[in-house]
Amino acid sequence: METEATLEAGEWVLNGEKYWIGNGVSGDYITVYAKTEDTDDRHGNHSLILVPTDAPGYEAEPIPEKMAYRASEQAHIVFDDCRVPAENLVGERGNGFKMVAEFFNAGRVRVAAHGIGLAAAAIEEAWDFVHEREEFGRDVADFQSVQHDLAEMRMEFESARALLWQAVDHVQRGEDAERWAAMAKAKATEVAAECAEASIKLHGGRALLNDERITRVYRDVRMPMTYEGVGAVQRDLIYRNF
Ligand SMILES: Cc1cc2nc3c(=O)[nH]c(=O)nc-3n(C[C@H](O)[C@H](O)[C@H](O)COP(=O)(O)OP(=O)(O)OC[C@H]3O[C@@H](n4cnc5c(N)ncnc54)[C@H](O)[C@@H]3O)c2cc1C
């Protein structure tokens, strides 16, 4: 948010730094949100600028090994008098906040779908495991409390997915999109975490093995819960657009 860009002799000159930027090392371009205006309107202060990763003054290093979402690369980027042509401005000058807000409506339903996928994987793993594992002379799935755990996961999964479908519909029609996208994002990603937790419990000691799919799901649910705004931020948006 604090990265600045000033227009000098037909070029944007960027200074600042960003952390967690997807493909910031290996990508050819990134879109940078930078402060370009000096107004009191905090919604009119920023612009979006396309920056090639070979631009002079662009430095990026990979963020070290993460505990989750390890197949995806993120970067720590520094702009030190980084220069790009004036024409690299995306859309209108000073309109960055509005463009990013609009992007988040579509982005957040995609993040919700990421959560739904992880919840489905957690349920599949739990179902398969408890039907294959025998304990005390019977399948683990024969215990009523285990059946209730699976029923609970399914109910929450279906509720979150129904909310996501409704949200997609609202976002596509551009009707009250911000609230619906925020509700779907918070609900689906939190259900993913709950399903991962329940599934881990049902896996007993095997839950601790690194090469189990459920172990990866359990770690990866932190990702959609976090990016494009944590749960508290989604609740702020839901309340504001009530
Ligand atoms: C793997 C990964 C990839 C990412 N990719 C990108 C990318 O490509 N581009 C990009 O720009 N960003 C990216 N991000 C950044 C991501 O959007 C932020 O990490 C996320 O929005 C949370 O911000 P933060 O990490 O600064 O947490 P903070 O804002 O420091 O929040 C820390 C904690 O404070 C609390 N908190 C924060 N805000 C509130 C609030 N309003 N009310 C109550 N409590 C609150 C919450 O408990 C929260 O967990 C990525 C992050 C990760 C982890």
SS strand fraction: 15-25%
Structural class: alpha+beta
CATH topology of the largest domain: Butyryl-CoA Dehydrogenase, subunit A, domain 3
Q: For the record, what is the CATH homologous superfamily label of the largest domain? A: Butyryl-CoA Dehydrogenase, subunit A, domain 3
CATH arch. level architecture of the largest domain: Up-down Bundle
- The CATH top-level class label of the largest domain: Mainly Alpha
How many helical stretches? 6
How many strands, which pairing sense, and closed or not: the largest β-sheet?
4 strands, antiparallel
Let me know the number of strands. Answer: 9
Low-confidence stretches: none
Topology as H/E string?
EEEEEEEHEEHHHHH
Ends distance: 27 Å
Integer tally of domains: 2
Please tell me what the overall shape is. elongated
Helix content: 40-55%
How confident is the prediction overall: mean pLDDT?
A: 96
Small-molecule binders: flavin-adenine dinucleotide
